[in-house]
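WARN retry 2 of 3 for item q-0093 after timeout on previous attempt; input resubmitted unchanged.
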Amino acid sequence: MAQVRLGTDNDIQVILDIYNYAIVYTTAVYDYEPHSFEMRRQWFETKKQQNFPVFVAEDNNEVVGFSSIGPFRAWAAYKFTVENAIYVRADQQGKGIGKLLMQPLINASRALGMHTIVSGIDADNEVSLKMHRRFGFEEVAHFKQVGWKFDKWLDLKFMQLIL
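OK item q-0093 returned
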């Protein structure tokens, strides 16, 4: 059974591997080029500096997924809104790991005094949309054809949980 813990510097490589898989093979990330270790290390350091946690799910001493929260937008008036991200290793999907990684994000957001969590999800990612709904997120926007990947237009849905 997977357990969730705070991520450490030692987890950066496996977090990078999971994230790069999502870039290369899925529409979970609207990007084309895999990130470098240095990019992910800087991302991790920024999370720490901003006091935003990164959680990892570990099963049999292997990291099988990660989740994080971070600023929704850079302007000051958004300071009580965070955006969440959850990624599960491809061979571990469908085992409830995403759900396991969600509750700590919600708890951390509350502890940090946040008011709402926003999530941008590819409109065809029914698994992620359903999981977010299970935690009380509601669809608040549907942006049509805002991304281009794998030779097709992608729709993006925004979901929101008011804490």
